[in-house]
Design a protein that fits this description.
The protein is built from ten helices and no strands. It is an all-alpha fold. It has one domain.
Length: 276
């Protein structure tokens, strides 16, 4: 098909009258919302990465420091100081790091979108043919690919065409207009999750210290039990948000945290013995 034919097809498609709607907009919206609620992850699921990464890193990092300090035979007071100081510093670092990394990743994606927009506006035919090839690579027959691309390639669908091009050609998702606010929310969720879960292992030590109980073995064992339960709960919580098997993911999270904490304890114990 020649360039002029492609342009003619685009013009024809652009002027085709809209077909009659089978359902009114309200019914369609209600059906879609019902489908999302019944079949897909909950709205809070979009923060699952931040909750899990922040919470898991918080509880494992803090408890690993406690385990290493216990293995090195540190006093409870020193364990509390190290645990709280690490919790605050790492929590701020995690939250800001999440926000900054997501923010600059989205800026990069938008720069790539602008490049695709320039190519579309200055070399439309090439971009149309490229999109047809991309759809063919996804398994569509050429004629079906043409029909789709000639529709979304119209000027009125330009934004959607560019968004689709960025996705299929560069494997990138164009962020929404309010991505800065979204990235900030993600950073805050990561920070709060890190602090909330990371404080759990330290809390046991604080309670024992306030009650003047100096039994290091007893407080460590209780902290181990509470931390293990918290890690399992975090995995279970993650699974329920994403409609997965709660017990399976709870055990996976527990294994992950236990492996890290055990390694920290053994290293602390070995260094204490080796340096004495």
């Amino acid at each position: 098909m020649t360039d002029s034919n492609i342009i003619n097809v685009l013009n024809v498609v652009e002027n085709i009258d809209n077909i009659d709607k089978v359902n009114d907009d309200d019914n369609i919206g209600n059906n879609l919302q019902h489908h999302k609620n019944e079949r897909h992850a909950k709205e809070s699921g979009k923060y699952i990465k931040n909750i899990v990464f922040g919470g898991l890193d918080g509880i494992i990092t803090t408890f690993s420091i406690i385990a290493a300090a216990y293995g090195a035979n540190f006093e409870n007071k020193l364990i509390i100081i190290m645990g709280v100081a690490n919790l605050i510093a790492d929590g701020i670092s995690m939250g800001l790091g999440d926000f900054i990394s997501s923010y600059y990743e989205n800026l990069y994606i938008l720069s790539e979108r602008d490049k695709e927009l320039y190519e579309y506006e200055n070399n439309t035919i090439y971009e149309i043919n490229e999109m047809i090839e991309l759809y063919e690579n996804e398994g569509l027959e050429k004629e079906d690919a043409k029909q789709i691309v000639y529709t979304i390639g119209q000027p009125k669908y330009k934004d959607y065409f560019i968004k689709t091009m960025v996705k299929y050609e560069l494997d990138l998702e164009v962020p929404s207009d309010n991505f800065k606010i979204q990235n900030l929310k993600e950073g805050v969720v990561t920070f709060l999750s890190f602090i909330s879960y990371g404080f759990i292992p330290v809390l046991t030590y604080i309670i024992y210290y306030v009650s003047s109980n100096k039994n290091k073995n007893e407080v460590f064992i209780i902290s181990c039990f509470i931390t293990a339960l918290s890690m399992f709960t975090l995995g279970f919580f993650q699974a329920k948000i994403t409609n997965q098997n709660g017990v399976k993911y709870g055990l996976m999270m527990l294994f992950n945290g236990s492996l890290a904490a055990t390694s920290a304890f053994l290293i602390g114990y070995a260094l204490e013995e080796g340096l004495n």
